[in-house]
């Protein structure tokens, strides 16, 4: 019960903080019902509680019946998956089914896994990005909505899942078959870079990741930008690679070996991306293949986005940037490629590198002469290389990293 209490309050506090100006009455009503759950006057329902909070944000305009129907439609699929696999006797079967339904590209989810939306993942521009109701609609969510939906679905079919909180962080815990607690990152797979080599000048570390696109799905300029962006990484540091100073004063050399290639159709892209895997030194299977395509992240102003196995160009915003904001098309496209690959290899916006900075217009005001503006586009950099490299193999423990935590992992 204490866990539920904390959870429900967490839910409320999030919304009150962000929307103190909103009509408080909706929140008061939602809170009263949640309080009834906490005081035993009503049965505790995590599903209902999440709905109440989100509904208050939307001024009580959502339908609980429709929400329950969405959840129930998925639970039918989950039960069928468990039956087909013949694992109904295991108490973690609901966890398995929910996880695969949410993360894999399978007929049960109409080949639409739920993905992590990298841009505006804190919901600072659009608070509804935190919501399960949004996730159900768009299949893209963040470290708040993904674990919430996981818990709701899992419980819907009789499983158990607990949410665990760390700073800026929320993930799922469940009891394994052996009775031990298991942490589950809801969107674990995809988007990592493989590190091999020993780091000497003769045998530098090599960062490997592959990018596939379906022939004809990108414009010629996007294909050129993809190749140029990849080349920009690969040629960093010249023939020896990027020289990095280690904490103990020694030097390491790091080279990039990224590739971009066109394949015949979506299935071939998926086969290629899912086929690029390796085992890291901690024994976890990781993937370094990615699919490049087109699509909007759903967060408004972004030119590109990255989800758990995809890098996308947002064509509508790119057009707007070129037509209305004076952006240079080839520099913008290449900048998007460099930035999204940067996410892929473990870069964060907060790193302060040119690779991970977002595209911005800078105004210069001169005392004498006309003021002007220039646009800065992301580029590759040595600083970026040092940061992601120093972060290798530690992403799972980094409390400030996002739940998806793509990054570099050393090959076993
Ligand atoms: Zn970004």
From TrEMBL:
The keyword Mitochondrion does not apply. Keywords: Signal. Residues 1-22 form the signal peptide. InterPro entries: MetalloPept_cat_dom_sf. GO terms for molecular function: metallopeptidase activity. Gene3D superfamilies: Collagenase (Catalytic Domain). This is Metallo-peptidase family M12B Reprolysin-like.
């Amino acid at each position: 019960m204490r866990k539920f209490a904390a959870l429900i309050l967490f839910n409320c506090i999030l919304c009150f903080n962000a929307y103190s100006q909103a009509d408080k009455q909706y929140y008061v009503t939602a809170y009263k019902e949640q309080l009834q759950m906490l005081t035993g006057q009503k049965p505790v329902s995590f599903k209902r509680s999440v709905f109440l909070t989100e509904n208050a944000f939307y001024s009580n305009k959502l339908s609980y019946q429709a929400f329950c129907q969405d959840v129930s439609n998925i639970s039918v699929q989950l039960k069928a998956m468990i039956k087909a696999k013949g694992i109904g006797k295991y108490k973690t079967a609901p966890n398995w089914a929910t996880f695969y339904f949410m993360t894999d590209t399978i007929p049960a989810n109409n080949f639409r896994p739920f993905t992590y939306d990298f841009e505006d993942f804190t919901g600072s521009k659009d608070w509804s990005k935190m919501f399960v109701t949004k996730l159900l609609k768009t299949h893209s969510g963040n470290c708040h909505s993904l674990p919430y939906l996981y818990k709701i679905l899992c419980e819907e079919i009789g499983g158990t899942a607990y949410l665990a909180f760390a700073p800026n962080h929320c993930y799922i815990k469940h009891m394994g078959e052996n009775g031990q607690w298991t942490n589950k990152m809801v969107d674990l797979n995809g988007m990592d870079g493989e590190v091999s080599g020993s780091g000497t000048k003769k045998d530098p570390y090599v960062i490997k990741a592959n990018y596939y696109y379906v022939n004809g799905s990108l414009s010629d300029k996007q294909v050129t930008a993809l190749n140029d962006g990849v080349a920009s990484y690969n040629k960093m540091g010249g023939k020896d690679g990027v020289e990095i100073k280690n904490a103990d004063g020694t030097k390491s050399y790091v080279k990039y070996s990224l590739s971009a290639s066109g394949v015949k159709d979506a299935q071939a892209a998926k086969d290629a991306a899912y086929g690029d895997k390796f085992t890291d030194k901690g024994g976890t299977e990781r993937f370094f293949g990615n699919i490049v395509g087109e699509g909007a992240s759903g967060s408004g102003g972004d030119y590109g986005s990255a989800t758990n196995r995809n890098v996308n160009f947002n064509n509508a915003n790119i057009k707007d940037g070129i037509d209305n904001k004076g952006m240079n098309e080839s520099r913008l496209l290449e900048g998007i490629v460099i930035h999204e690959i940067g996410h892929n290899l473990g870069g964060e916006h907060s790193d302060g590198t040119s690779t991970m900075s977002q595209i911005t217009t800078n105004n210069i005001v001169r005392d004498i002469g006309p003021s002007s503006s220039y646009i800065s586009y992301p580029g590759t950099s040595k600083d970026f290389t040092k940061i992601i490299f120093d972060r290798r193999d530690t992403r799972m423990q980094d409390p400030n990293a996002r739940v998806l935590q793509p990054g570099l992992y050393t090959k076993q």
